[in-house]
Specification:
It is built from 7 helices and 2 strands, in the order ββααααααα. By secondary structure, the chain is mostly helical. The N and C termini lie far apart (46 Å).
Length: 135
């Protein structure tokens, strides 16, 4: 069975998140593992934070290595997906997100700010192949 958003070899999810075409390996779309896909989970969710689309762009596009790791490294994938489930797709918890609070006040959050309020140096993290939090 394949993803319901993978129709006749087109990817309806790209209509909602066009940037993923640059980074995504679509082999999972044709597998039983499609339900683990973050975009699938977002599209299936009953609730989405009003800032979800803009916050998904918190990772700078000049870091294609990060997006490649996101698709290949389970630890990096979990690092991105866990806060998405915990905050972005939670009606009860989304207002506790540090990025939500800043956007709600009209302030643009910095790219490395995580929902729990930590700052991540993404370039340094790529070099070290580990998530590195700013001090």
């Amino acid at each position: 069975m394949s993803c319901p958003y993978y129709i006749d070899f087109t990817r309806d999810c790209i209509k909602t998140y066009p940037a993923i075409i640059k980074y995504k390996d679509f082999s999972s779309c044709e597998s039983e593992g499609y339900h683990k896909c973050l975009v699938y989970q977002i599209l299936q969710s009953d609730f989405r934070c009003p800032y979800l689309s803009t916050c998904l762009n918190m990772f700078p596009e000049d870091l294609p290595e990060f997006f490649q790791l996101l698709n290949k490294d389970p630890a990096v994938y979990e690092y991105v997906t866990k806060p998405t489930y915990q905050y972005c797709l939670s009606k009860e918890n989304h207002a506790q997100c540090a990025r939500y609070k800043m956007r709600h006040e009209g302030i643009e959050p910095p790219p490395g700010l995580t929902p729990d309020g930590q700052n991540v140096d993404l370039k340094d993290s790529l070099i070290k192949r580990a998530i590195v939090f700013d001090q």
